[in-house]
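Check my protein:
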Amino acid sequence: MLDADTYSSLSALDITREVNAGQLSAVEVAAAALELAEQRGPRYGAFTCLAPDHGMADARRTDARIAAGERLSLAGVPCPIKDLNQVAGLPWEAGSAALRGNRASVDDPIVGWFADAGTSMMGKTATPEFGLPCYTEPDTGAPAVTPWDPTRSAGGSSGGAAAAVAAGIVPIAHGSDGGGSIRIPASACGLVGLKVSRGLISSGNRPPGPGLGIDGVLTRTVRDTALALDVLAGPRPGDTYWAPAASGGYLTACERAPERLRIGLLTAPVIAADAEVHPACLDAASRAATLLEGLGHEILECPVPFPDSQWQAFASVWAVGALSIPLPPEAEAALTPLTRWLRESGRTSTALEYAQALAAIQLLTLQVAEVWADYDIVLTPTLAQPPAPTGSLRDDADPAADFAAQTRFTPWTSIYNLTGRPAISLPLHTTRVDGPDSPELPIGVMLGGKFGAESTLLGLAAALEQVAPWGRPNLG
C-alpha cells in the first residue's frame, strides 16, 4: 500500500521510472491519488468531478501493458483533465451554469494522447466559465484556491489543475493557455507552467482559430514539464501547420544548461500601462536576474515592445471568441456577467474590424520580434501582484471593470499568446505580504523565448531549479 506522504513526494518522472521497472503498480499509484483527491480536492476547489472507475481502469490497462513488455512515457502517472475538454461519459460543464448537467459523449484527442502514454485519468479539474477569466470562480462550484493560502485564488483558467498539483494530489495536470491560463495559476500556486510555441502541440479536433490557445500541463518540477512535452509535442493527422519539435527530446534538454545568453529584464507593465506592480513581484524578478547572472548570463534592460493601445486587438479577438461559443439563446441568462459582456462586445465587432484585429496581431508579432531581436530570453514577473484574494478580481456589477482588473493583474502573459512565442513561469520567490505571521505566498517569474526555443527555456529553467530549488505549501 502506497501511503499518502510517500506518494505526494514522487514526481511524475519518479512514478514513470518505478512503474516501468515494476517497483510500483499503476493501480496502487492511482488508488493513492484518488484517496488524496477525496480528502484534499474539496478543500481547494480542485475538481468538478472525480472518476475513480475511469482512473482505475486506466491503471489496470497500464499494468497489463507493462507486464507485456511495454515501456510507457508517463507510466502510471495520475493526470486529470481540465473541464474545458471532453472525457466521454463524464460531466462537461466548462465552468458554466448554462451547461449544468451536460455530459460528454466523446473523448477530446488529448485524453487519448495522455492515455496512450500510460496516465490514469482520475477526474476533471475546475475552470471558470469557458476559461475566459484569470480567476477560477465558477457558478457551478466552489472557487479554486491556492493551497499556500486558501483565502486566495488559484488563478485561472487552469485553477483547478494548479490546485490539484500544488496540494500534492497529482504530480501533473492537464491545462490550457489562451492568455496566460497555465502560467497565471502556476504563479499563484508555486508551480512550473509552460506555454509552448504556437503549433508545437496540436489543437486536435478543435479549429486553431487565431492561435491564441494551446494545451499543456502544470507540474511541480521542470523535468516533469519536459517529460509531458515529449508526449504532447509534434504534429497530428490533419494539422495544417506545426512547429518543429526539438531533436533529442525535451527531457534531454533539461540536462544541457544553455551557454551565455543575453537576457532582457522587463518589469514595466505592457498591456496595462497603469498597472501597479507589487514590490514582491519586482523582488522576484530581481532575484531571478541575480541567479541568472550567477549562472553566467548577461542581464540587460529590456524595452516595452509596443504601446498598450496596440493590445486592444487581443481584447477584440477574445470577445469574438466568447461570442463564437455555440450556445442556444435561452442559455444566455445563465451566463456570468463577464461572459455576457464579452459576448455583447463581440456582437458589436464587424467582420472588417475582426479581420483588422487579426492583421494587427500579425503586425504586433513582427514588431515584438524586431524590438526583442537582441535578447535570447526576456525576464518579467509572471503577475503584477501576489495571488489575489478570492473574489477581489471578479466584479459582476461591472464586468468591464472586471476585465480591466484582470489586465492589470496580468500585464505580461498574453504577449506570448499574441506572438505565438513560448514562455515558462517558475516559482523562484516567496513572500509574506501581510506581515511575518501571514502565510507564505509563491511569486512566479516568467522567462519568454523566441519561437521554438523550448529547449533553451527548459535547460535554463532546470539550471535555475538546481541552484534555487523551490518549496511546497504547508498543507497543515
Notes: The mean pLDDT is 97. Residues 306 and 368 are 7 Å apart (CA to CA). The chain has one domain: 4-467. The radius of gyration is 21 Å.
